[in-house]
């Protein structure tokens, strides 16, 4: 794992999105943990090792906003990037810090946001 740029968890109920994001992140040198639901992630042993979380907003069961709230309690300071195919409005902090992406999104822009999050450049409260 010494060659990894970080462990990125991806949560999306769309298998195609999950697979394509995993491929993109792995090609950029990240270790990927992919989950088809928030509950699958929360019930896994991956939570302590995650360096960044990418989650879809619109999922059955627990949505991305709720997953972010739960993860912020479990892992304070963990960077979370939200993705959506819907028309949710990002909060000002997310928009300011490039933490909200609408599908289809630019893969390079997402990789840049992950890099900034992992480097701690956004200094979110």
From TrEMBL:
Residues 7-118 form the Response regulatory domain. The keyword Phosphoprotein applies. Keywords: Phosphoprotein. InterPro entries: Bact_response_regulator, CheY-like_superfamily, Sig_transdc_resp-reg_receiver. This is Response regulator. It comes from Sinorhizobium terangae. The keyword Phosphoprotein applies. GO terms for biological process: phosphorelay signal transduction system. The modification 4-aspartylphosphate is found at residue 56. Gene3D superfamilies: 3.40.50.2300.
């Amino acid at each position: 794992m010494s060659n990894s740029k970080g462990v990125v968890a991806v949560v999306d109920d769309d298998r195609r999105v999950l697979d394509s994001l995993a491929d993109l992140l792995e090609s950029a040198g990240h270790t990927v943990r992919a989950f088809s639901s928030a509950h699958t992630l929360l019930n896994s042993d991956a939570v302590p090792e995650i360096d960044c979380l990418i989650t879809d907003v619109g999922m059955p069961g627990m949505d991305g906003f709720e997953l972010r709230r739960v993860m912020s309690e479990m892992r304070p300071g963990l960077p979370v990037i939200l993705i959506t195919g819907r028309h949710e409005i990002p909060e000002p902090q997310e928009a300011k810090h490039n933490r909200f992406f609408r599908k289809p999104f630019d893969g390079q822009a997402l990789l840049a946001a992950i890099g900034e999050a992992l480097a701690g450049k956004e200094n979110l409260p």
